[in-house]
Structures are given as C-alpha cells and as structure tokens.
Amino acid sequence: MGQSPRPRPKRLAEKLLEIRAQLGLTQEQFAERLSHIESPPQPGHVSEFERGKREPSLLYLLAVARLAGLPLEAMVDDEMDLPEKLPRRVRGEGPGD
Questions:
Q1: Is 74 left (phi over 0), alpha (psi -120 to 50) or beta?
Q2: I need a surface site. Which of 45, 66, 67, 73 has the fewest CB within 10 A?
Q3: CA-to-CA dists, residue 43 to 5, 19, 27, 34, 91, angstroms
Q4: What is the pTM of this model?
Q5: Of the candidates 11, 33, 30, which has an alpha carbon nearest to the alpha carbon of residue 21?
Q6: What is the dihedral of CA 49, 55, 56, 57, to 10 degrees?
Q7: Is the separation of the CB atoms in 25 and 94 below 8 Å?
C-alpha cells in the first residue's frame, strides 16, 4: 500500500515567484538574501520552488515571509491573495534602485 502525497498549497509556487518579482530581485539575489537560514537555497532551488518542482522548507517560507513583510498565512493559504504591493521592497538591488 502506497501513501498518498501530503496536501500542498496549490498557489504557493506562483506566490513565491510574485513575491520575488515584487521585491525586484533575481533568483541569485533572492538566494543570497536567504543565505542566513539553515540549509540555505541555491539559485536553482529558487527556480524549482517557483515552478512547483520542489517543496520549500518551513524555514525557507518563514524567511521569505519576513523578507517580504507578509504573514506566512498569506503565502500558504490558497484562499488568500497576496497584496498588490508588498509592505517591503528590497532597495538597491532591483530595477530603478
């Protein structure tokens, strides 16, 4: 008897991509901003998370939420939309900064 995969948020990948885009960071810059967490992501991991090919750790999700100034719930609850504009924007690394 095989186990069913555990449920995952269906919109998480698109939300992670949207958050990074709103912060104005490349995948490399995003990975660097999260390099302080245990088992930090590589730029390739960021891509896999954004395409739904790999499931991010809770520590990764918490770090993203803090970087963006969002409650973690907004990222993982499929019934919640992200705000049109994030509370925080990373300065000095995006276009026009």
A1: alpha
A2: 73
A3: 26, 15, 5, 10, 20
A4: 0.85
A5: 30
A6: 180
A7: yes
**Interacting residues of 28 by C-beta distance below 8 A, sequence separation 6+:** 43
Distance in angstroms (rounded) separating the CA atoms of residues 96 and 38? 31
Instruction: Give the pLDDT band (50/70/90) at residue 97.
Output: very low
Summarize pLDDT for 44-93 with one digit per residue, the tens.
999 999 999 999 999 999 999 999 999 999 999 999 999 999 886 665 44
Length of the chain measured in residues? 97
What sign does the dihedral 64-25-33-41 (CA atoms) show? positive
Provide the token pair at 6.
């555990």
CB 35 within 8 A of CB 67: no
Other CB atoms within 10 A of residue 92 CB: 6
Over range 25-50, report the average pLDDT. 95
